[in-house]
Design brief:
Elements (H helix, E strand, L loop, with lengths): L13 H34 L2 E6 L5 H12 L14 E4 L1 H12 L3 H5 L7 E5 L7 H12 L4 E5 L2 H42 L2 H9 L4 H37 L9 H32 L7
Antiparallel strand pairs: 1-3, 1-4, 2-3
Helix pairs in contact: 1-6, 1-8, 1-9, 6-9, 8-9
């Protein structure tokens, strides 16, 4: 007759704890990646919003250069990575050439003169993207005597703001629900794991071990397992991101190294926090139970 190997007293089910915690942190991390990509996409959309500033017909070259410097100094103008302002001058001659190339109609021969105006295309900082802020920017630009007209796609900007708000609400709701589910999942897993340790805890109490002495090995082990789970979930997300970039190169433009590293660090910290306090809560429970309640 084949002998069955008896399970040792206090045999901690670490594989299930590590697996469940890794899975939970992976889900949270995956949502974090989606939030980072969505935020990056939002910034890209906002940074591509531009205002067209048309100059008066009789603006001199010196006045134009002075105006360009004034525009570049404004806080609401987008700054390129090299620190330069996103202010592009388009002369009426180059605008006419571009119009002819796009439409195929040479209106210069028909009209006998170029009716277009010199203009600046001004990139707007993403922090100045609301309807009220853009309205204030428009009024500020109109205060320059060299400027004839200020125009931007108001309907497009309102649509972008409206959709960003809706997406943010949906993602925030999903994030809230997932966090609750993850907390419950990890907490229940730890409680089940500590349930298998209840007689070991009682044995340690019977030989006179103080509560702090009983808690120490379990809490230190919980930190170790949570660190392993956090690192594993981070590694899985890292390889998943690399795989997605290899198949969809367009996604690389949404890569945000700083926030991605912060996300990985946050996953590890969250894992330690959840497992540690779930373990502590379960320990306090079993330390207070009587022997009859353990069965």
């Amino acid at each position: 007759m084949k002998k069955t190997r008896k399970k040792k007293l206090g045999n901690y089910p670490y594989p299930s704890v590590v697996f469940t915690t890794t899975l939970a942190l992976f889900i949270i991390g995956l949502l974090g990646v989606v939030l980072i990509k969505a935020n990056k996409l939002k910034d890209i959309l906002k940074s591509n919003i531009e205002i067209q500033v048309y100059l008066n017909k009789y603006t001199s070259e010196n006045e134009r250069i002075k105006l360009e410097k004034a525009l570049a100094s404004k806080d609401y103008v987008f700054k390129n990575p090299d620190g330069s302002a996103k202010v592009t001058f388009i002369s009426k001659d180059s605008a006419a050439v571009g119009f002819v190339e796009q439409t195929g109609e040479d209106f210069l021969n028909f009209l006998g003169e170029n009716p277009l105006l010199d203009a600046y295309v001004v990139g707007i900082d993403p922090n100045f993207f609301s309807k009220d802020q853009l309205g204030s920017i428009q009024e500020d630009l109109k205060s320059f005597s060299e400027i004839y007209e200020v125009a931007y796609q108001e309907n497009l900007i309102e649509a972008i703001n409206r959709n960003i708000t809706r997406i943010s609400i949906v993602l925030a709701s999903i994030a809230f629900l997932l966090i609750i589910i993850v907390v419950i999942l990890v907490n229940n897993t730890i409680r089940l794991a500590m349930f298998s340790q209840r007689f070991l805890i009682r044995s340690m109490q019977l030989v006179g071990a103080k509560p702090s002495f009983v808690k120490k090995p379990f809490l230190s082990r919980s930190i170790t397992y949570s660190l392993i789970s956090g690192i594993l979930s981070g590694v899985i997300i890292y390889f998943l991101l690399n795989w997605s970039y290899s198949y969809f190169e367009e996604l690389e433009v949404l890569f945000d190294l700083k926030n991605t590293l912060l996300l990985f660090a946050g996953i590890i910290i969250l894992g330690v926090f959840l497992v540690f306090f779930s373990t502590l809560s379960a320990l306090n429970k079993y330390l207070k139970l009587s022997l009859d309640d353990l069965y």
